Protein backbone atom coordinates (compact mmCIF):
# COMPACT_ATOMS: atom_id res chain seq x y z
CA UNK A 1 0.00 0.00 0.00
CA UNK A 2 1.17 3.53 -0.81
CA UNK A 3 -0.24 5.92 1.78
CA UNK A 4 -0.24 9.71 1.79
CA UNK A 5 -1.25 11.26 5.09
CA UNK A 6 -1.99 14.99 5.08
CA UNK A 7 0.74 15.54 2.50
CA UNK A 8 1.48 19.04 1.25
CA UNK A 9 4.33 20.39 -0.82
CA UNK A 10 5.13 23.98 -1.52
CA UNK A 11 7.94 25.56 -3.50
CA UNK A 12 9.51 28.97 -3.11
CA UNK A 13 9.81 30.50 -6.52
CA UNK A 14 10.89 34.11 -7.21
CA UNK A 15 9.85 35.17 -3.72
CA UNK A 16 6.44 33.54 -4.05
CA UNK A 17 5.15 30.36 -2.48
CA UNK A 18 3.62 27.83 -4.89
CA UNK A 19 1.43 25.27 -3.16
CA UNK A 20 1.92 22.39 -5.60
CA UNK A 21 0.19 19.72 -3.49
CA UNK A 22 -2.32 20.52 -0.77
CA UNK A 23 -3.20 18.25 2.11
CA UNK A 24 -3.54 15.00 0.19
CA UNK A 25 -4.83 11.85 1.86
CA UNK A 26 -4.63 8.80 -0.34
CA UNK A 27 -4.24 5.06 -0.20
CA UNK A 28 -3.09 3.17 -3.26
CA UNK A 29 -3.55 -0.55 -3.10
CA UNK A 30 -0.67 -2.89 -3.88
CA UNK A 31 -0.59 -4.75 -7.19
CA UNK A 32 -3.00 -2.41 -8.97
CA UNK A 33 -2.62 0.21 -11.68
CA UNK A 34 -3.48 3.69 -10.43
CA UNK A 35 -4.00 6.67 -12.70
CA UNK A 36 -3.34 10.25 -11.63
CA UNK A 37 -5.14 12.57 -14.01
CA UNK A 38 -5.26 16.35 -14.14
CA UNK A 39 -4.40 19.28 -16.35
CA UNK A 40 -0.93 20.80 -16.57
CA UNK A 41 0.21 22.26 -13.24
CA UNK A 42 -2.33 20.30 -11.18
CA UNK A 43 0.44 18.82 -9.03
CA UNK A 44 0.52 15.29 -10.46
CA UNK A 45 4.29 15.01 -10.89
CA UNK A 46 5.00 16.59 -7.53
CA UNK A 47 2.63 14.14 -5.83
CA UNK A 48 4.16 11.12 -7.52
CA UNK A 49 7.75 12.30 -6.96
CA UNK A 50 6.99 12.24 -3.25
CA UNK A 51 6.54 8.44 -3.47
CA UNK A 52 10.30 8.04 -3.99
CA UNK A 53 11.12 11.32 -2.25
CA UNK A 54 12.53 12.96 -5.35
CA UNK A 55 10.47 15.70 -3.72
CA UNK A 56 10.19 15.85 0.04
CA UNK A 57 6.80 16.79 1.48
CA UNK A 58 6.67 20.11 3.28
CA UNK A 59 4.11 18.49 5.58
CA UNK A 60 2.68 15.03 6.15
CA UNK A 61 3.77 11.42 5.85
CA UNK A 62 4.39 9.07 2.94
CA UNK A 63 4.22 5.39 3.88
CA UNK A 64 5.18 2.48 1.63
CA UNK A 65 4.03 -0.82 3.07
CA UNK A 66 5.24 -0.67 6.67
CA UNK A 67 7.89 1.96 6.06
CA UNK A 68 7.37 5.64 6.66
CA UNK A 69 9.85 6.76 4.04
CA UNK A 70 9.70 10.38 5.11
CA UNK A 71 11.59 9.26 8.26
CA UNK A 72 14.35 7.26 6.57
CA UNK A 73 18.04 8.13 6.67
CA UNK A 74 19.71 8.86 3.32
CA UNK A 75 21.29 5.38 3.26
CA UNK A 76 18.01 3.54 3.94
CA UNK A 77 16.26 5.78 1.45
CA UNK A 78 18.75 4.76 -1.27
CA UNK A 79 17.84 1.12 -0.62
CA UNK A 80 14.12 1.87 -0.55
CA UNK A 81 14.38 3.72 -3.86
CA UNK A 82 15.66 0.58 -5.55
CA UNK A 83 12.19 -0.87 -4.99
CA UNK A 84 10.70 1.97 -7.01
CA UNK A 85 11.29 2.24 -10.76
CA UNK A 86 10.44 5.34 -12.75
CA UNK A 87 9.88 6.11 -16.42
CA UNK A 88 9.46 9.49 -18.07
CA UNK A 89 8.04 11.13 -21.17
CA UNK A 90 11.53 11.84 -22.55
CA UNK A 91 12.88 8.30 -21.86
CA UNK A 92 16.12 9.66 -20.29
CA UNK A 93 18.41 7.11 -21.95
CA UNK A 94 22.17 7.51 -22.31
CA UNK A 95 22.70 8.25 -25.99
CA UNK A 96 26.30 7.04 -25.95
CA UNK A 97 25.40 3.62 -24.55
CA UNK A 98 23.64 0.87 -26.43
CA UNK A 99 20.41 -0.79 -25.31
CA UNK A 100 22.19 -3.49 -23.32
CA UNK A 101 24.41 -0.95 -21.54
CA UNK A 102 21.47 1.31 -20.74
CA UNK A 103 19.57 -1.53 -19.09
CA UNK A 104 22.69 -2.82 -17.30
CA UNK A 105 23.62 0.64 -16.02
CA UNK A 106 21.72 0.59 -12.69
CA UNK A 107 23.25 -2.81 -11.85
CA UNK A 108 26.81 -1.52 -12.27
CA UNK A 109 27.31 -0.91 -8.57
CA UNK A 110 25.32 -3.92 -7.39
CA UNK A 111 26.89 -7.01 -5.88
CA UNK A 112 25.87 -9.06 -8.90
CA UNK A 113 28.50 -10.94 -10.91
CA UNK A 114 29.05 -10.18 -14.58
CA UNK A 115 27.20 -13.31 -15.72
CA UNK A 116 24.27 -12.59 -13.40
CA UNK A 117 24.02 -9.09 -14.83
CA UNK A 118 24.10 -10.52 -18.35
CA UNK A 119 21.30 -12.96 -17.55
CA UNK A 120 19.29 -10.27 -15.87
CA UNK A 121 19.60 -7.81 -18.75
CA UNK A 122 18.70 -10.49 -21.28
CA UNK A 123 15.68 -11.45 -19.20
CA UNK A 124 14.58 -7.80 -19.00
CA UNK A 125 15.02 -7.27 -22.73
CA UNK A 126 12.92 -10.34 -23.36
CA UNK A 127 10.27 -9.01 -20.99
CA UNK A 128 9.93 -5.84 -23.07
CA UNK A 129 10.35 -7.70 -26.35
CA UNK A 130 13.63 -6.09 -27.41
CA UNK A 131 16.02 -9.07 -27.43
CA UNK A 132 17.08 -8.32 -30.97
CA UNK A 133 18.00 -4.68 -30.26
CA UNK A 134 20.56 -5.09 -27.52
CA UNK A 135 23.40 -3.62 -29.64
CA UNK A 136 21.40 -0.72 -31.03
CA UNK A 137 21.91 2.84 -29.82
CA UNK A 138 18.97 5.04 -28.72
CA UNK A 139 19.24 7.12 -31.92
CA UNK A 140 18.53 3.96 -33.90
CA UNK A 141 15.30 3.24 -32.04
CA UNK A 142 11.70 4.40 -32.41
CA UNK A 143 10.03 6.26 -29.53
CA UNK A 144 8.16 3.14 -28.46
CA UNK A 145 11.38 1.08 -28.47
CA UNK A 146 13.17 3.76 -26.42
CA UNK A 147 10.39 3.64 -23.85
CA UNK A 148 10.69 -0.15 -23.74
CA UNK A 149 14.41 0.22 -22.96
CA UNK A 150 13.56 2.70 -20.22
CA UNK A 151 10.99 0.27 -18.79
CA UNK A 152 13.52 -2.59 -18.82
CA UNK A 153 16.04 -0.36 -17.04
CA UNK A 154 13.45 0.71 -14.47
CA UNK A 155 12.84 -2.96 -13.66
CA UNK A 156 16.52 -3.80 -13.05
CA UNK A 157 16.10 -4.10 -9.27
CA UNK A 158 12.76 -5.94 -9.41
CA UNK A 159 10.90 -2.95 -8.01
CA UNK A 160 7.58 -3.31 -6.25
CA UNK A 161 6.38 0.00 -7.65
CA UNK A 162 6.72 1.53 -11.11
CA UNK A 163 6.05 5.25 -11.51
CA UNK A 164 5.21 6.42 -15.00
CA UNK A 165 5.32 10.19 -15.58
CA UNK A 166 3.52 10.85 -18.89
CA UNK A 167 5.43 7.93 -20.39
CA UNK A 168 3.22 7.77 -23.47
CA UNK A 169 2.70 11.50 -24.06
CA UNK A 170 5.40 11.72 -26.74
CA UNK A 171 4.16 8.65 -28.61
CA UNK A 172 1.63 8.20 -31.41
CA UNK A 173 -1.70 6.50 -30.55
CA UNK A 174 -0.66 3.08 -31.86
CA UNK A 175 2.64 3.05 -29.95
CA UNK A 176 0.86 4.40 -26.86
CA UNK A 177 -1.44 1.40 -27.01
CA UNK A 178 1.47 -1.03 -27.22
CA UNK A 179 3.29 0.59 -24.27
CA UNK A 180 0.10 0.58 -22.18
CA UNK A 181 -0.40 -3.07 -23.07
CA UNK A 182 3.15 -3.80 -21.93
CA UNK A 183 2.57 -2.01 -18.61
CA UNK A 184 -0.58 -4.04 -18.08
CA UNK A 185 1.28 -7.29 -18.85
CA UNK A 186 4.05 -6.36 -16.40
CA UNK A 187 1.46 -5.58 -13.74
CA UNK A 188 -0.17 -8.97 -14.25
CA UNK A 189 3.01 -10.98 -14.63
CA UNK A 190 5.14 -9.36 -11.92
CA UNK A 191 2.39 -8.11 -9.59
CA UNK A 192 4.05 -4.71 -9.67
CA UNK A 193 2.05 -1.67 -8.49
CA UNK A 194 1.98 0.96 -11.24
CA UNK A 195 1.22 4.65 -10.80
CA UNK A 196 0.55 6.36 -14.11
CA UNK A 197 0.53 10.15 -14.42
CA UNK A 198 -1.41 11.35 -17.42
CA UNK A 199 -3.50 14.19 -18.79
CA UNK A 200 -5.26 11.79 -21.14
CA UNK A 201 -8.49 10.15 -20.18
CA UNK A 202 -7.88 7.38 -22.69
CA UNK A 203 -4.79 6.20 -20.82
CA UNK A 204 -6.77 5.86 -17.60
CA UNK A 205 -9.60 4.04 -19.35
CA UNK A 206 -7.20 1.70 -21.06
CA UNK A 207 -5.25 0.29 -18.12
CA UNK A 208 -6.10 1.79 -14.73
CA UNK A 209 -8.25 0.21 -12.05
CA UNK A 210 -8.24 3.25 -9.79
CA UNK A 211 -8.05 6.92 -10.58
CA UNK A 212 -7.11 10.06 -8.69
CA UNK A 213 -8.30 13.34 -10.20
CA UNK A 214 -6.18 16.37 -9.30
CA UNK A 215 -6.90 20.07 -9.66
CA UNK A 216 -4.87 22.98 -8.26
CA UNK A 217 -2.80 20.72 -6.02
CA UNK A 218 -5.80 18.97 -4.52
CA UNK A 219 -7.21 15.51 -4.99
CA UNK A 220 -10.78 16.33 -5.99
CA UNK A 221 -12.06 12.83 -6.77
CA UNK A 222 -10.71 9.33 -6.39
CA UNK A 223 -11.78 5.73 -6.55
CA UNK A 224 -12.54 2.87 -8.84
CA UNK A 225 -12.30 4.05 -12.49
CA UNK A 226 -15.78 2.86 -13.41
CA UNK A 227 -17.46 4.54 -10.44
CA UNK A 228 -15.61 7.82 -10.83
CA UNK A 229 -16.23 8.10 -14.58
CA UNK A 230 -19.81 6.77 -14.56
CA UNK A 231 -20.85 9.31 -11.92
CA UNK A 232 -18.41 12.21 -12.10
CA UNK A 233 -19.10 14.76 -9.39
CA UNK A 234 -16.64 17.58 -10.06
CA UNK A 235 -16.70 19.67 -13.20
CA UNK A 236 -13.10 18.77 -14.05
CA UNK A 237 -13.94 15.05 -13.94
CA UNK A 238 -16.97 15.70 -16.17
CA UNK A 239 -14.67 17.53 -18.59
CA UNK A 240 -12.31 14.55 -18.72
CA UNK A 241 -15.25 12.21 -19.34
CA UNK A 242 -16.48 14.49 -22.13
CA UNK A 243 -13.00 14.58 -23.66
CA UNK A 244 -13.37 11.00 -24.89
CA UNK A 245 -17.10 10.97 -25.48
CA UNK A 246 -19.21 12.52 -28.19
CA UNK A 247 -22.35 12.66 -26.04
CA UNK A 248 -22.00 16.31 -25.09
CA UNK A 249 -21.88 17.15 -28.80
CA UNK A 250 -25.67 17.11 -28.81
CA UNK A 251 -25.68 20.55 -27.15
CA UNK A 252 -23.61 21.98 -30.03
CA UNK A 253 -25.92 20.39 -32.59
CA UNK A 254 -28.95 21.94 -30.91
CA UNK A 255 -27.26 25.32 -30.77
CA UNK A 256 -26.37 25.07 -34.45
CA UNK A 257 -29.99 24.09 -35.17
CA UNK A 258 -28.90 21.01 -37.11
CA UNK A 259 -31.99 19.54 -38.78
CA UNK A 260 -31.97 16.28 -36.80
CA UNK A 261 -32.50 18.27 -33.61
CA UNK A 262 -35.64 20.01 -34.88
CA UNK A 263 -38.24 17.97 -33.10
CA UNK A 264 -41.76 17.18 -34.22
CA UNK A 265 -44.58 17.30 -31.72
CA UNK A 266 -44.50 14.32 -29.39
CA UNK A 267 -40.73 13.85 -29.60
CA UNK A 268 -37.95 14.49 -27.16
CA UNK A 269 -34.21 14.05 -27.11
CA UNK A 270 -32.96 11.93 -24.25
CA UNK A 271 -29.45 11.09 -23.14
CA UNK A 272 -29.08 7.70 -21.48
CA UNK A 273 -25.93 6.91 -19.50
CA UNK A 274 -24.79 3.78 -17.73
CA UNK A 275 -24.36 4.43 -14.02
CA UNK A 276 -23.46 0.97 -12.86
CA UNK A 277 -21.68 -2.15 -13.96
CA UNK A 278 -23.44 -5.13 -15.46
CA UNK A 279 -25.68 -3.00 -17.63
CA UNK A 280 -26.39 -5.90 -19.92
CA UNK A 281 -30.15 -5.63 -20.32
CA UNK A 282 -31.59 -4.69 -23.67
CA UNK A 283 -33.06 -1.52 -22.26
CA UNK A 284 -33.72 0.34 -25.49
CA UNK A 285 -35.81 -2.46 -26.96
CA UNK A 286 -37.50 -2.95 -23.59
CA UNK A 287 -38.76 0.63 -23.36
CA UNK A 288 -39.71 0.57 -26.99
CA UNK A 289 -41.93 -2.51 -26.48
CA UNK A 290 -43.17 -1.84 -22.97
CA UNK A 291 -44.15 1.80 -23.53
CA UNK A 292 -44.92 1.70 -27.23
CA UNK A 293 -42.20 4.21 -28.13
CA UNK A 294 -40.02 4.76 -31.16
CA UNK A 295 -36.39 5.19 -30.19
CA UNK A 296 -34.10 6.64 -32.83
CA UNK A 297 -30.49 6.56 -31.68
CA UNK A 298 -28.70 9.65 -33.04
CA UNK A 299 -25.33 8.73 -31.67
CA UNK A 300 -23.71 6.78 -28.92
CA UNK A 301 -20.49 6.27 -27.13
CA UNK A 302 -20.16 3.00 -25.33
CA UNK A 303 -16.86 1.42 -24.43
CA UNK A 304 -15.67 -1.09 -21.93
CA UNK A 305 -13.89 -0.36 -18.69
CA UNK A 306 -12.60 -3.72 -17.68
CA UNK A 307 -15.53 -5.82 -18.81
CA UNK A 308 -18.22 -3.28 -18.12
CA UNK A 309 -19.86 -0.97 -20.63
CA UNK A 310 -19.60 2.70 -19.81
CA UNK A 311 -20.92 5.66 -21.75
CA UNK A 312 -24.32 6.21 -23.23
CA UNK A 313 -26.66 7.04 -26.06
CA UNK A 314 -28.42 10.13 -27.33
CA UNK A 315 -31.79 9.31 -28.87
CA UNK A 316 -34.93 10.91 -30.21
CA UNK A 317 -37.85 9.24 -28.49
CA UNK A 318 -41.39 9.62 -29.74
CA UNK A 319 -44.69 8.39 -28.41
CA UNK A 320 -47.35 9.42 -25.94
CA UNK A 321 -46.08 11.91 -23.38
CA UNK A 322 -47.32 9.77 -20.50
CA UNK A 323 -45.49 6.74 -21.87
CA UNK A 324 -42.25 8.64 -22.31
CA UNK A 325 -42.43 9.86 -18.72
CA UNK A 326 -43.04 6.29 -17.51
CA UNK A 327 -40.16 4.99 -19.62
CA UNK A 328 -37.82 7.57 -18.09
CA UNK A 329 -38.94 6.48 -14.63
CA UNK A 330 -38.45 2.83 -15.59
CA UNK A 331 -34.89 3.42 -16.78
CA UNK A 332 -33.95 5.49 -13.74
CA UNK A 333 -35.17 2.64 -11.53
CA UNK A 334 -32.80 0.38 -13.48
CA UNK A 335 -30.00 2.81 -12.60
CA UNK A 336 -29.64 4.30 -16.04
CA UNK A 337 -29.02 8.04 -16.04
CA UNK A 338 -31.63 9.83 -18.14
CA UNK A 339 -31.31 13.48 -19.09
CA UNK A 340 -34.03 15.24 -21.06
CA UNK A 341 -32.03 17.34 -23.51
CA UNK A 342 -34.89 18.78 -25.60
CA UNK A 343 -38.58 18.30 -25.04
CA UNK A 344 -41.50 18.53 -27.49
CA UNK A 345 -43.82 16.15 -25.64
CA UNK A 346 -47.47 17.01 -25.78
CA UNK A 347 -49.72 16.10 -22.91
N1 LIG B 1 10.84 22.78 -8.44
C1 LIG B 1 9.80 23.62 -8.50
N2 LIG B 1 9.95 24.92 -8.15
C2 LIG B 1 8.91 25.78 -8.19
N3 LIG B 1 7.66 25.43 -8.56
C3 LIG B 1 7.45 24.15 -8.91
C4 LIG B 1 8.50 23.18 -8.92
N4 LIG B 1 8.00 22.01 -9.31
C5 LIG B 1 6.68 22.21 -9.58
N5 LIG B 1 6.36 23.50 -9.33
C6 LIG B 1 5.02 24.10 -9.48
O1 LIG B 1 4.10 23.28 -8.81
C7 LIG B 1 2.88 23.20 -9.52
C8 LIG B 1 2.56 21.74 -9.82
O2 LIG B 1 3.50 21.25 -10.75
P1 LIG B 1 3.56 19.73 -11.24
O3 LIG B 1 4.69 19.59 -12.19
O4 LIG B 1 3.48 18.83 -10.08
O5 LIG B 1 2.16 19.63 -12.04
P2 LIG B 1 1.70 18.55 -13.09
O6 LIG B 1 0.24 18.33 -12.84
O7 LIG B 1 2.58 17.37 -13.05
O8 LIG B 1 1.88 19.35 -14.44
P3 LIG B 1 2.42 18.85 -15.89
O9 LIG B 1 1.36 17.91 -16.40
O10 LIG B 1 2.51 20.10 -16.69
O11 LIG B 1 3.73 18.18 -15.64
C9 LIG B 1 3.05 24.06 -10.76
O12 LIG B 1 2.51 25.33 -10.50
C10 LIG B 1 4.55 24.12 -10.92
O13 LIG B 1 4.94 25.31 -11.56
From TrEMBL:
Alphabetized UniProt keyword annotations: Amino-acid transport, ATP-binding, Cell membrane, Membrane, Nucleotide-binding, Translocase, Transport
Similarity section: Belongs to the ABC transporter superfamily.
Record's GO cellular component terms: plasma membrane
Occurrences of domain ABC transporter (ranges): 2-241
Record protein name field: D-methionine transport system ATP-binding protein
Any one GO molecular-function label of the UniProt entry: ATP binding
Cited CDD domains: ABC_MetN_methionine_transporter
A single GO BP: amino acid transport
Pfam family, one: NIL
Amino acid sequence: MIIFENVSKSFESYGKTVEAVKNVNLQMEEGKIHGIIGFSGAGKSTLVRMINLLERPTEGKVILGDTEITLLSEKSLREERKKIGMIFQQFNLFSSRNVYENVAYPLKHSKMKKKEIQDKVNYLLELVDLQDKSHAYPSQLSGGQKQRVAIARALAYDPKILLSDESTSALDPQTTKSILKLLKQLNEKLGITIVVITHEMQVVKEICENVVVMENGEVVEQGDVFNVFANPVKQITKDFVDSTSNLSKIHELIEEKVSITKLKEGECILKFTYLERNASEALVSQISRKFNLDVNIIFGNIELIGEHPIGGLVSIVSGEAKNITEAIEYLRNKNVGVEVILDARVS
